[in-house]
Design goal:
The chain has 287 residues and is of the alpha+beta class. The chain contains 8 helices and 13 strands.
Length: 287
């Protein structure tokens, strides 16, 4: 069984300890595990063909998703599925699917003209963020119309505008690997993705919400940002294959799920796209 990870550049350029352990566990099961970073290759896109049994998307960059789309067109088997990753990355699509599935999410608008959010800002604080974003980049809290005017936003940049959800000052970061759900708490900050949180127990309500979100988007390895508001937990973001920092035993659960997926014991419905006609997988044509 040949498994290939599509990775993101890390700063500093040191491997993720969780991913190192996942790789070691898969190799002990007899799998051949390789990895590449798309931005560090010159890839012949028109000749790219699958040559692994499973490709695992561990990068959220536009280039990684583009290559994932090429591989899907060649019937590669991807985890998470390509369409599911695209749906999770697009916060407009994700918000709509989550709400339709009964997952609590903030009221959400989308626009390319931030001035149009003035009326909504008069009713209460808003959160403004890019339609396609990751790691909290570009997230701004707008407390009222004056803050809106002061925003330095590039014209015609698609933006998500959401009602601000009040919470205890910390995010609940929920991590899922198949049916296993765990969580940590940590304060939100621009660099909070680099730090582990405090492991905390999972309530039955949060566990149900987390699994429902994964089903709605077609994800098996994913994370949610949850704010514990006075009215109950609210999901403000979903990411495919996050870092699982601070989660005890994360590597064992991730490796177990990858093995089950590779063996065909579990499967996922690709978010919003028809299933591929067959399966193969990655990354041959780098030249």
């Amino acid at each position: 069984m040949r498994v290939h990870f599509v990775l993101v550049r890390r700063v500093p350029p040191v491997p993720s300890p969780v991913l190192v352990e996942v790789t070691e566990r898969l190799e002990r099961k007899g799998m051949i595990v390789t990895a590449t970073i798309p931005e560090e290759l010159l890839t012949r896109a028109d000749l790219l063909r699958p040559d692994h049994d499973l490709v695992i998307l561990k990068s959220h960059t536009e280039l990684a998703l583009s290559l994932g789309g090429l591989l899907r067109a060649e019937n590669a088997r991807l985890l998470n599925p390509y369409g599911s990753c695209v749906a999770a990355q697009d916060k407009v699509t994700a918000s709509r699917r989550l709400r339709a599935a009964g997952v609590p999410v903030p009221a959400t608008w989308v626009t390319a003209d931030i001035d149009l959010a003035r009326e909504a800002s008069e009713r209460g604080p808003l959160v403004v963020k890019p339609v396609r974003g990751h790691r909290g980049v570009g997230v701004v809290v707008v407390r009222g119309p004056d803050d809106l005017v002061a925003l330095d936003v590039v014209p015609d940049t698609p933006l998500i505008v959401q009602e601000h959800v009040s919470g205890p000052g910390e995010d609940l970061k929920v991590y899922v690997a198949g049916e296993h759900v765990s969580a940590v708490r940590k304060p939100f900050a621009p660099d909070s993705f680099t730090r582990p949180g405090r492991p905390v127990p999972i309530s039955d309500e949060v566990r149900t919400i987390a699994l429902r979100a994964g089903e709605a988007l077609g994800l098996g390895l994913y994370g949610l940002d949850v704010i514990e508001s006075p009215e109950g937990p609210v999901v403000v973001d979903v990411n495919y294959f996050p870092g699982y920092k601070g989660v005890p035993g994360a590597a064992a659960h991730i490796a177990s799920y990858i093995e089950a997926y590779a063996d065909g014991r579990v499967d996922l419905h690709e978010g919003g796209l028809p299933p591929a006609a067959g399966h193969a997988a990655m990354v041959g044509a780098s030249q």
